[in-house]
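Give me the fold.
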Amino acid sequence: MRILIVLAHPEKKSFNAHLAEITRQSWMERGHEVTVLDLYTEDFDPREGSWHYEHRQDADKFDPMQEQRHHWQRQQLPPTTQRHINLLLQADALILHFPFWWFGAPAILKGWMDRVFVYGGLYQSSKRHQNGVMRGKRALLVSTAGASAQACAPNGRDGDMRLLLWPVMYSLHYIGFEVLEPHLIHGVRGGLFADQAEQQRDELKRAVGDYQAKIQQWGDWPLVSFNRDEDFTESQVLKPQAPVHSPFVRHCES
């Protein structure tokens, strides 16, 4: 298999970077091909904008979707964008490593999706969801939070961390990925000393071991459920008898 790891953390010595390295080693030890994209090391520009496109379809008004499709069709996308797209197309699995900042993914990761999931290339009206370009491939989110697991639970003070990551998971599903249940690690904090620091090291060491064990069972990792195209009417409304998998897509009470 070909594995693509995307790391979105600015510190090379961070626990996120350590986890990404664990992921790389785990797959390589099993004989798989692994590529790591470190967005901060690459100084990836997360801002979509007209300055990325040299051969504008419309020089007077910048329409991101139309310019993406225009440059995709003419094979004139920015070199970095095209390289990242090629890696996605070649990969059998995508693993995103990032910290949970302000109840979501870091801006650089959202910007990566804005710029790399190009319209016309990685999605269009006829190639979405289960018919997406990435169908047959798997994607996993590995995210860390400073708060405890209790605080990040559905009834926790900080809200349901898994649910707050649904937009990222749905975006991956939108372009065709099978999305695995996210792997969430809590209590990853800096500024600890003495006994607290030692306790955290022990807890994170156990967390790494648990994560490595789960990677070994990749084929058994549970999938996130999403509605399929046939669950919706022609007006893109959920059919009355269709299942509900998320509060984001649900039946409206009459």
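Residues 225-254 form one domain.
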